[in-house]
Design brief:
Elements lengths: L8 E5 L4 H12 L3 E6 L2 H10 L6 E5 L5 H15 L5 E4 L14 H29 L2 E6 L12 H20 L4 E8 L5 H4 L6 H8 L4 H11 L9 H12 L10 E4 L9
Parallel strand pairs: 1-2, 1-4, 2-3, 4-5, 5-6, 6-7
């Protein structure tokens, strides 16, 4: 299927690892030109170089948890593309497996600055320009936790729910010229989980009293994931690219779950 992305311009945040990296690769395979933004610029640059994508990808170093970081990234994008992109993918995000009582006010603010306000600020910069030009697509990466909250990682879930809500508002406000959709991943095996120093695996091991993949399988069974496994970054990337493409031109304001069946609601 021709997704109609050849020659399109894409701004992608959180592009250095995990879902972001897989999405970067997928857009380049479809013939898009990508401006990839991440605070981990060395990792991003190395991947772009190793994958032979230097002609198709411009990398930008930015801390999107700050107003100044977003502003600087926006200025770079506008100069690089001579205007707004055709597609904006708000993928950047972070969270920790803390209980409600462990999450301070500062933690809530820090989580919302990165996960929520980066999306708000980037949309405010680009969506009106897309609308004035006559076309555009926005895809936000939320989470299954935004639709079915748990008793931990409350700040993360709340920030992703806020993203989904604002996306609905933007989908109405800027229709029919700009489409705004969400992809809600479930447990996806990325450095978010697997990183030895910052990932969630150690906390999962402690919670279930098991090690490595045995702890992961215990989580899968505990959550009752029908497909019986964690997802891959590529599976989420496929959904993101689809919603950004001409194959999804009658979809706006939706949240597409890529979660192995974790969400049981009928809407």
């Amino acid at each position: 299927m021709d997704l109609g992305l050849t020659g399109r311009t894409v701004v992608l945040t959180g592009a250095a690892t995990g879902i972001g990296r897989a999405t970067l690769d997928a857009f380049v395979r479809e013939g898009a030109r990508v401006v990839a933004i991440d605070i981990q610029i060395a990792l991003l640059d190395q991947h772009v170089h190793d994958a032979g994508m230097t002609e198709a990808v411009t990398t930008v170093h930015a801390d999107l948890s700050t107003r100044e970081g977003v502003s600087g990234a926006v200025d770079t994008v506008l100069a690089e593309l001579d205007g707004a992109p055709d597609v904006l993918v708000n993928n950047v995000g972070a969270g920790r497996l803390n209980t409600f009582e462990e999450i301070s006010d500062e933690d809530f603010h820090r989580t919302f600055e990165l996960n929520f306000f980066s999306m708000v600020r980037l949309c405010k910069a680009f969506v009106p320009l897309m609308h004035a030009r006559g076309a555009g697509a926005v895809v936000n990466v939320t989470s299954d936790l935004s639709r079915q909250a748990e008793d931990v990682i409350v700040d993360y879930a709340a920030s992703k729910a806020a993203v989904a809500s604002v996306a609905k508002s933007l989908a109405r406000a800027y229709a029919p010229r700009v489409r705004v959709n969400n992809v809600a991943p479930g447990p996806i095996w990325t450095p978010f989980w697997s990183d030895a120093s910052t990932g969630w695996l150690k906390e999962i091991e402690a919670a279930y009293g098991r090690v490595g993949q045995e702890a992961v399988q215990a989580l899968i069974e505990d959550r009752g994931i029908p497909l019986g496994r964690m997802g891959t970054p590529e599976e989420v990337a496929n959904a993101i690219v689809f919603l950004a493409s001409d194959a999804a031109t009658y979809s706006t304001g939706i949240t597409l779950g890529v979660d192995g069946g974790t969400i049981r609601s009928t809407f």
